[in-house]
Amino acid sequence: MIRPAQVCGGLLAALEAAEGRRRSRKRDQTPDGIGLAIKRDLLQRAVRENPNPEAFEEWLLQCGLACAPESAGAVSAMARAIFEEWRLAHSLHEFKDWLDQGAPSADADEGKRKQNGAEQVERQ
Questions:
Q1: Half-sphere exposure for 82 (CA within 13 Å, toward CB)
Q2: What is the mean predicted confidence (pLDDT) over 89-112?
Q3: How confident is residue 81, by pLDDT bands cut at 50, 70 and 90?
Q4: What is the C-alpha separation between 103 and 117, in angstroms, rounded?
Q5: 109 with 13: CB under 8 angstroms?
């Protein structure tokens, strides 16, 4: 069985694509940024703690219960999304293969180019 840390590592790479798309939008990005930050934190914790596959859903539930009450809903929603993506990696081999390849995306590449360009401008 695939370990949660393995899938969550791939999902972290996929967040780069989401960041690239988010930066290109012409509207207030605050809610998107908050959601992505919550998801990134949960994915990083899953990679670090590498819970047992059989207990992954319970582990994610506990993450939502253990956080501050004002963010419990958002954390629980992101935990559910991560669990569904983990299940998808088990049932759809193409998705799992894409994650194993580092979740390549033109949006992620564009986001990295923009970020690197901004960092170069700051150094000048």
A1: 37
A2: 75
A3: very high
A4: 22
A5: no
Q: Which two tokens stand for residue 53?
A: 């596959």
* Distance of alpha carbon 65 from alpha carbon 72, whole angstroms: 6
C-alpha span between 95 and 32 (Å, rounded) = 23
Is residue 47 within 8 Å of 8, Cβ to Cβ? Answer: yes
Letter for the amino acid at 16? E
Distance CA 117, CA 110 (A): 11
Of the chain, the percentage scoring pLDDT greater than 90 comes to: 39
pLDDT for 32 equals: 72
For 43, residues 6+ apart whose C-beta sits below 8 A from its C-beta are 8, 9, 11, 12, 15, 82
Tokens (6 digits) for 28: 């207030």
Q: Which tokens go with 24?
A: 């290109």
Taking the C-alpha atoms of residue 103 and residue 115, their distance in angstroms, rounded to an integer, is 18
Q: Phi first, then psi: what are they for 96, rounded to 5°?
A: -60, -45
pLDDT tens, residue by residue, 11-63 = 998 887 666 555 555 666 667 778 889 999 999 999 999 999 999 999 999 98
User: Residue 101: what residue type?
Assistant: Q
